[in-house]
Amino acid sequence: MRLVYRTAAVVTVVAALGVVAAGVVLTRNDPGEAAAAPAPKADPVTVAATTAAPLPPTPVLPSPSPSPSVSPLSTAMTDALDDPRVPELPGGQQKLRAFAGKSAKIRGSVKDEKSGVAFPRFAGAWDLASASPFASRQLLPKVKGSAYRGLLVSCPVPIEVQDDLKDTAFLAARWTLNHHPAGATIKWTSADLTEIDDRPAWVLGYDVNYTIKGDKRKSAAAIALVDVPGAKPALVFISVPDSQKKSYRDINTVMSKIKVL
Question: Are strands 151-156 and 117-122 parallel, antiparallel or unpaired?
Answer without folding.
Answer: unpaired
